[in-house]
Amino acid sequence: MKAMSVMDAAWLLVESENTPMHVGSLLTFTRPEGASDTFLRDMVDEMKKVRDPAPPWDLKLYRPNLPGRMALPAWQEDRNLDLEYHVRHSALPAPGGERELGVLVSRLHSHPLDFTRPLWECHLIEGLENDRFALYAKMHHSLIDGISGMRLLQRIMSRDPAETAMPAPWHVRPRREMPELHMPEFSLRGGLRQVVRALRSQIASTPELAGALNRLARASREHDGELTGPFDCPSSILNKRITAQRRFATQQYSLALLKRLAKQADASLNDIVLYLCGTALRRFLREEGQLPEESLTAGIPVNIRPADDDRAGTAISFMIATLGTSIRDPLRRLERIKASTRSAKAHLQSLPRNALTQYTMLMMAPYILQLVSGLGGRSRPVFNVTISNVPGPDEQLYYNGSAMEAMYPVSLVAHGAALNITCLSYAGSLNFGYTGCRDTLPSMQRLAVYTGEALEELEQVLEAGTGSRRKAAP
After folding, report:
1. How many domains does the chain have?
2. In which domain, by residue range, is 108 found?
3. Would you say the C-alpha torsion 179, 180, 186, 187 has a positive or negative sign?
4. Are residues 23 and 158 both part of a single domain?
């Protein structure tokens, strides 16, 4: 048996027909020069021949059903993994453009995973224009987060375009395995031992934890500081009930350009990402006649995973920052975002590492409770939108001689949180993935377009400001 943390189990708890809790990645490739017509079919056939799959690909849910045992979720190995089921081969209709790919991925991401099997699927998609193909993979969030997923995918790639006969993703073992559980851990006594261990850890960090929670409560109460707390936001059309169908859109920007603008603005790359998303959302909501007077806020996952840890599971904390959507002036909006993220980072960094897990659980508790209780999308949101920035590989990567062009994250949405924007850096670009509810946000693709226009506007505004400073200089 493999252990499951409380946070991982929470993603299983809130799974429902309309809120499947899986996340995914969309990778696009250029076929190697001179590849045969059956190149992709042959690769799929080789992927299905794996006989010794590695974790987390071989893990499925274990639900104890013996009398007197606590129903603590855990993972068990599936010794008869059916790769014919998990690995799919698809093709796009002509002309095989980005639109057709987005429609297919939206449909695939809408389908829930089969909980009687390991919680993942992989789809190889041919027919992408200009002799390209795509790989879309999805896995339940209880098994993986953005960082662990990125490290897992990165390890199956090569820097060498000449390397062939490469292993399938599910044949590469992580450097560090998930801890084993023994059957006594599922007993009442074992469950109590886990509770005692958690309480001891929490007691050791109680003063710092209490101080952090008091600062958040004060920020939410007073609404006049730079620190943004839970529920310190308006309700919006992003925070309604959702249905099961998804829409997915992408954008790709030069990482060098974004970093240059960040330097000009004395901001971080994350600040620029939040500015672009906030500006696009401001325009989108204004056009819908739905822009709140208060600024929207973003829930921002923060990685707390060690650099050498590529195990399955989630290892994130959380911070909340304003998006400045109530501010008309672009530079003032950016300054408000910078001040908010500085305060949020300082708040998070004030906590010792052994308190981060408890803090994250307490921060996420209102969000989870809203979903479990049915109040999600019916009450004031904890925050308005999730925005995440995941660092990826800097160099060009290949798989079986195929050059990987881009990696796009495909995330999850929930009741009260109908939109997720996740960014992933790769080989000099920053790739945006927009995941939304098809019915709650029927025109979500406009957000992707507006993000690009927000980038152009910011570049012009910052250049104009730099020019003014140069003229004013003696």
Report:
1. 2
2. 6-186
3. negative
4. yes
Angle at 395 between CA 391 and CA 400, to 5 degrees: 110
Q: Confirm if 238 and 419 have CB atoms less than 8 A apart.
A: yes
Cβ burial of 74 (10 Å; 0-12, 13-18, 19+) is: buried
φ, ψ for residue 364, nearest 5 deg: -85, -15
If asked whether residues 173 and 231 sit together in one domain, one would say: no
**Residues 250, 126 share a domain:** no
Structure tokens belonging to residue 432? 């945006």
pLDDT at 218: 63
pTM over 0.85: yes
Q: Which of 22, 141, 347, 415 is catalytic?
A: 141
Q: What is the pLDDT of residues 157-183, one digit of tens each?
A: 999 999 998 989 998 876 666 566 554
pLDDT digit string, tens, across residues 43-68: 999 999 988 898 899 999 987 454 44
Listing DSSP states for 225-261 in one string gives SS---TT-S---GGGS---S-EEEEEEEEEHHHHHHH
d(Cα 67, Cα 111) in Å, to the nearest integer? 34
The question of whether 141 is a catalytic residue gets the answer: yes
Any domain includes 87: yes
Q: Please indicate, yes or no, if residue 211 is contained in any of the structural domains.
A: no
CB of 86 closer than 8 Å to CB of 117: yes
Distance CA 340, CA 344 (A): 6
Task: Confirm whether 215 is domain-assigned.
Answer: no
**Same domain assignment for residues 290 and 433:** yes
- The number of angstroms, rounded, from the C-alpha of 315 to the middle of its chain's C-alpha atoms is 12
Residue 419, domain member (yes or no): yes
What CATH number corresponds to the domain at position 288? 3.30.559.30
